[in-house]
Write a structure and sequence with these properties.
Number of helices: 11
Helix content: 40-55%
Structural class: alpha/beta
Radius of gyration: 17 Å
CATH topology: Rossmann fold
Order of helices and strands: EHEHHEHEHHEHEHEEEHHH
Largest sheet: 9 strands, mixed
Strand order of the largest sheet: 3-4-2-5-1-6-7-9-8
CATH architecture: 3-Layer(aba) Sandwich
Bound molecules: adenosine-5'-triphosphate, magnesium ion
């Protein structure tokens, strides 16, 4: 069965995309057939890191214009992973993003149905892990991704705003949708070795990743878990991967 993870956060810029991309490469490097879908339809990122090799975007699939398979680019050879690494890109065209804002509830309901069908498509292809990179907060697309997931990975920053909103999301969204959750503390400013917290708001904390300037300043296309496995960020990603697997 395919494990579907939604990488979500209450606030923007917490590190969701960095973690989603590295986690996908970590799973694929460990031989798992992996699919990474850019569900951040309002702020697409994958297309600035990888090159799509198909004419179909995830937007087309959600609108019922194609199958999920038609949107996938296999990056196994480009990156050199042992498992397949399928990528599904969100359309970065500004007109498409503006259009999305005006989509109504019916379109969003159809998009959720498409996502559920997409999960079945991926299960038929024997995909082991699917990762949905989402936009922050409670936009329809993110909540659809959360609803379609088996587990929500909450990327959390140590700010009061993030604390207040994450707690609300756990109580008001994930719990209501009956989702399993885990927290990643990212960009932590203190001494991570001092952190004893294993649970927050009743949710397990998988790891705490320090704030490291070089993560933001290295090349946009660099996937640390692949290019620099000894980097603390890469090691944290491997810990997250192992803990997620142990939780299944
Ligand atoms: N641990 C870290 N230390 C320092 N910088 C980090 C860390 N993790 C991620 N970053 C940097 O923070 C910035 C935001 O990261 P990223 O784009 O992954 O966040 P995001 O949650 O996906 O943002 P958005 O909500 O806009 O989609 C990037 O420049 C990234 O390189
Ligand atoms: Mg992002």
């Amino acid at each position: 069965m395919t494990l579907t993870l939604a990488i979500h956060s209450s606030k923007g810029g917490t590190g969701k995309t960095s973690i989603a991309v590295n986690l996908a490469v970590a799973f694929a490097s460990a031989g798992k057939d992996t699919c990474l879908i850019d569900m951040d339809l309002r702020g697409p990122s994958l297309c600035s890191m990888f090159k799509p090799k198909t004419h179909f975007w995830i937007n087309d699939f959600l609108s019922g214009k194609c199958n999920l398979k038609d949107t996938l680019t296999d990056s196994k050879k480009d990156i050199g992973t042992s498992g397949h690494l399928y990528l599904s890109f969100s359309n970065p065209d500004i007109g498409e993003i503006r259009d999305l804002v005006s989509k109504d509830r019916n379109w969003q309901a159809g998009a959720l149905k498409a996502l559920m069908n997409g999960k079945r498509e991926l299960a038929e292809e024997n995909i082991d892990v699917t990762i949905l990179d989402t936009s922050p907060g409670v936009e329809y697309e993110s909540i659809n991704a959360v609803a379609a997931s088996d587990m929500v990975i909450i990327v959390h920053n140590d700010t009061k705003a993030c604390h207040d909103c994450t707690e609300q999301l756990i109580k008001g969204v994930y719990t209501l949708l009956d989702k399993r959750c885990a927290i990643i503390d990212n960009m932590y400013h203190g001494n991570c070795l001092d952190i004893k917290e294993k649970n927050r708001y009743g949710v397990p904390v998988l790891t705490t990743i320090p704030c490291m300037c070089d993560i933001a300043t290295r090349s946009k296309n660099e996937i640390l878990v692949h290019s620099d496995p000894e980097h603390l960020f890469s090691k944290s990603i491997m810990t997250i991967k192992d803990k997620i697997e142990a939780m299944q």
